[in-house]
Every structure is written in C-alpha cells, then in structure tokens.
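hiii so my PI (J.) wants the whole complex modelled not just the main chain, which honestly fair. so below is everything: two entries, each one labled with what it is. i double checked the lines twice but i was tired so who knows lol
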Amino acid sequence: MKYIIPRIALRNLSRQKKRSFLLGGAIAFGIMIVTLINGFAGAFIENVSENFAYLMAGHVFVQGAEKTPSGKRLSVIRDDSIIFSAVRDSGLSYEFATKTSEVSASLFFEGKTIRQNLTGLDLATNLFLRERVVLRQGSWDAIGPDSIILSEKIASRLNVLPGDRITASFQTLTGQNNIADFTLAAISVDSSIIGSVMSYVDLAYINEAIGLKSGEYMALGFMLNDLKAAEAFASRLYTSMAGMGIQLFDRSANEEGSAATPFQAMIRTQRSEDWQGSRYSVYTIDDIVSQAKQIVVALDGASLIILLVLFAIVMIGINNTFRMVMYERIKEIGTMRAVGVQRKEIRSLFLNEALFLALGGAVAGLVLALIAMSILSLIDFGMNTPAFMIMKNGHLSFFVPPLRAVFNVVIIAALTLLAAYFPAKAAAKMEPAVALRTAK
Amino acid sequence: MAIIEVRDVKKTYPLGKVEVQAVKGVSFSIEKGDFISIAGPSGSGKSTILNMIGLIDKPSSGEVLIEGRPTSGLSDKELTRLRHEVLGFIFQSFNLIPVLNVWENIEFPLLLGKTKVSATEKKEWIDWLIDEVSLSEWRTHKPNELSGGQRQRVAIARALVTKPGIVLADEPTANLDSSTGEQIIELMKKINRELSTTFIFSTHDAKIVEVADHIIRLKDGLIVENKRLNGAGSPDQVRE
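here's the output for the full assembly
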C-alpha cells in the first residue's frame, strides 16, 4: 500500500481546517489540563518532601527510644557512635548530620500564651538553617545560648519583638513540669503549617531543660545530596545497624485491616510494645510525608476522571463529525472501492485520520501544557505564601512522569479511535454502487 | 472467447415499499478490444448494467462472466481484487481524489493490492499516460485546479494505469461541453486502438454513440438493439 491510505488520511485533515482545528483543539485542551494536574501532582510529593527535609534538617532520620519501667516512652539517643559507625561501615555519604531534640511547650508573654514545638538544634553552627530560614526581624548574629527563633505569625500572636524574654512551660523526659526562659533572637518568615507550630531553640539549652545529659539528643538527621537517595541510604543504614545487633523498629511494618502507612504502624508499635534498652527507628522524609502521597493518588484519580469526562464529550463530537465526513466523502468511498480499495482499507482510512487528529491534538496539548508550566513556574509566590510547602523555593514546580504522559496520549488515541470506529465501519460496509449512486 | 458475457441478467431495486426492475433480463457478449456504447434514455438501465459488468453491483439473477470466469459466487474481497486487476473506471463526474495531485491520482490504483511494479517502470508508465492525455504541465496540480476536460483525462489515465483489459465509462461526457466531450471520446478511441483495451461507455448522446463500433441500445431495462458497425462482427440476437 506504500502508506497511501495514511497519506490520504493525513491530507484529509486539511480539507476542513476549521473543523480539524476545533476537534484537535478540544483534544489539546483536555490533554493540557490533565498534564497540568499530573505535572502538579508529580512535583507535589517531591516539593513537600524537600521542604520538610529543609525544615527538619534531614532526608534520613535515626531516632532513639527507651521504655521506662512505668511504660513511658523516652525519645533519646544516648550514644550516637554506633550510628556513625554503621554509616561508615556501609560506605554511606551525606552532606551533614543534624542532631535535634524536640519538645512540645506553651509559650507565655505578657498574659498571652501559645502552643509550639520547640526544635533544638545547634543554632550557632547550623549553617543549613541559616541558609534556609529567612529572617524578617532580628539577626543570626544575635544568637545566644537561650535564643529562640519564632515565625512571624507566632511572634505576632504573642506580640513579641526581638530582644523580648519569653517563658516556655513543658514536660521533661521523665514527665516533670519545667519552665525555661528564652530570648527572642529573630523572627522568621512563615513557613506554612510547619512554621506556625515550629520554633527553633539551641540544642544544648533545651536538652538541659528537658533532662538530657551532655551529648544526648532525640534524633539524628542526615542531609543528603539528593532526596531520591534517601530510601537507599535508609535501607542500607538499617541493614548495617541490624547487622551490628542494634535493636530496631521494623521499617516495613503493616497493620492488617488498617490503611496506616508503615511509618504510622512503626510509631504505633513504639507505643504498644515493650523492650529493654535503646531501640532505634530509621525513617526517611518520604515516610513522614507518606500520607501526602494519598493526595497525589487523589489528584491522579481526579485527573483521570477529568480526562475521561472531557474525552467522553470530545468523543461524541468526533463520532458525529466522522459520521458527517462519511456522508461528505461518500463519492470518494465509492470510487476507491471501485478502483480496488478493500473494505478494511476504507476503515483504516477513517481510523488513520482519527489517529492523526488525536496525536496532533495530544502533542499540541503537551506543548501547551509545557508552555503553561514554564510560565506558571516563573511566578514568584514568595517564601511566606501559605502554599509554601508544596512549592519549590516559592515557585510552583511541575514534573510530568513520562509514562503518565504516554498513558494519557494512548488513552486519547484509543478513545478517538473508538469514537471513529463505528462511522469507519459503516463507511467500509457501504456497497460501492450504493455509494456512487448516493453521490450523484 | 468473449471478454465479457452477460447472461439473462436482471436487477431489481427496492424503492420505498415497492420494487423497481431496472434491468429485465439482458444477455450479450463483448469481445476483447471492442469500443462499445451502451445507449439509451435516462432510466433505461445503462448505469445498472455498467455497474454489474464493473462488479460494483450484483445482479438479482443471471450471471456476468469476466474473461470467462463467473462472478456471482465471489466474495467482496475477491470482487474488489478482480476489479483492481481487470477493470478500469471512468465516472461522469470524474471522481478524482481531491487531496491527491494529478500524478498521485493516476498512481493511486498502482499502490493498491499486491501488484508490484518497479519504481522506474511505474514512473515511465505514468509519465507516458500523462503525456498521452496531454497533462504534462499539470502533473502537480490538484483536481480543483483543473478544468472538467482535464479532470476527465486524469480519470482516463487512472483507469488505464493498471493496464486493465476493460475500461468502463459511465456517461464520461455528460458533464463536459460537446467539444471537450468529443475530444474525450477521441482519446478513448485512440487508446482503444493503441492498447487494444476494451472500452464500454454508456451515453445518451446520439452523436457520441456513433463513434462506437458496437452499440447496445436499451429501453426500459431491455436491449432493443445490439449491432456491430464497420464490419466488427455479426450482431447478437436482439430482444424487444
């Protein structure tokens, strides 16, 4: 056939330019919308994970836990040399490690009170935090042992300014009530939900206040070069620590009949099980934000529904158009059949035309989506937008998994072919004499 | 042996709730190389007979034999293949494919089926046909850029490109002015002489009928005259 049928099909698209443009445009619009949603969902997890990683200063975390005789769970790493030894032994590399302790506290200032998580880090030396946290007021130079950095929203609710003394009330590791005074060193730009519940204090100061000895802390975070390496890092570290006979919580725990993620199951195990001595959990930032993946699944599901609804409408249009085309070209069908074109080739002529329309529309839709993504990602929403956590440095970011894009195109092509199939079949079934007689 | 043999062929069409008998039982044969005119007024059954000879319509009863081969039991696929190999078609309203240019329209039948022709041979043959129908200057033009006469010449070249034994032309001059119509008939006659291709054309134009060397006249679905001219052979039996 030397591609004569596809060639004619392709040229046929230019016969009714306006009609082809509208049909192709409808396909392109649908693909564009779906690709934008897929692109947003594709980058969502990575952005959330990366932003969490920055706020929590790590991609992979090791947390120590002990159970007291009374059944209370203590979060503590008393000797981190075994962890670093496991890291060294397994040849793992990281950018830097951050030791943190965290306590839930009530902050008081002139009769106002607010609940906050105080995250203790080495404020004096943690360059990463200095790079990441944007200060609205105050300065890193003002950091002292009793310093606290509050987000803008919290500072505003407490009505405090840098230099003010804030009192914090919290429980020590053993459950006793304690208070400590902090000096507000700086006010940071809000970092979304996390920013409104998280304040930074000095590790040594908070450790002393909650009853941890020198050199002890609650969690060790490893910041890697690449978020994608986190799972492999965690997995190897886990294996290495297990090989050293260290007690560990199962990373892949599953609860039967529960929708809980392995990370949630691991947290519950820590509450319900008893053990002696120190036991460690190894987890990644992805484990923490695993619930956010459900949002991605929902977005992907929504995009698929949108795709199907949009294309159900487009399919009706394509079906009607191809029925019209069949009657418009009835003389040609008769002529082609008379000169030796077989029925299946007539069907193929229509289906090829539909396929080219679908592919043309899909490619145009993908290009439009890429252009729209480029433009949207240029807009700077700033670091203090409420949607900060789902953005990349204050910009919307998109990632369309190539297989997803291919899947969308295949779905469109299949639906378009299905819409054109029945008119194509009717055209192929037409007797040549009937077609030629009808056209006269 | 007759290249076409029509044996007691009848054709009935459903028209609403009634049935119309377009052809009421005709028999005739056509020899290879004939230049034959099927004449008669509108509704006499010319096109119906031509369609049945051309295997694009099936008789309600009777038999059409092409090159001695009965066609009534053939499947659609076999009929299509036979049309492609043995028959060429020229239509009243030219029926060119609008998205193909002159050269491509003529080439089109050669790209169908399983017949393989070398590129050089194909090019030489199509170029010869284009010269023969005087369209050398128009080979890259689309049908909508041609006059009616030029379009019909393209259709003639297309009908001949597969070197068929029989070319069927249904009212080939009906959409042309008389002078162009005569030129088209002359061209068909010339090719008939040069290539010994059998030409069967239907017409209601008395002037054009006389050019044929074998005339079959129809009236109300029956043959009223079947005669060979210029000593082209003895006439078949005439039914009235």
